[in-house]
Amino acid sequence: MHHLPTPNEFSCRQGLGFLHVNARSLVPKLDVFKTWFLVAKPDIVVVSETWLKPSVTDTVIHIDGYNVFRADRKGRADSDGMSNAFNAHFKKAGHIFDEQ
Q1: pTM to 2 decimals?
Q2: What residues are paired with 66 via a beta bridge?
């Protein structure tokens, strides 16, 4: 089993900070994830298995200081989907997902 770094360990890093999380449903855990963002301040975040539905607006998953891009899985009610977040100091990369 791998040690999961605490947010304080992330904040002591140097260089580019990258965080990947397999959320297995993002919305119920959104407060926890937002706390991680605020404390760890990663530069790039990839969240897999967001399970977001079209009824969840971008405003709900917005995180101050980040540009968030999402790709909800179409046709499956409670699985898949991903979201990427880039610290706002990066130039806006545009939509990074292929149309499905």
Answers
A1: 0.72
A2: 87
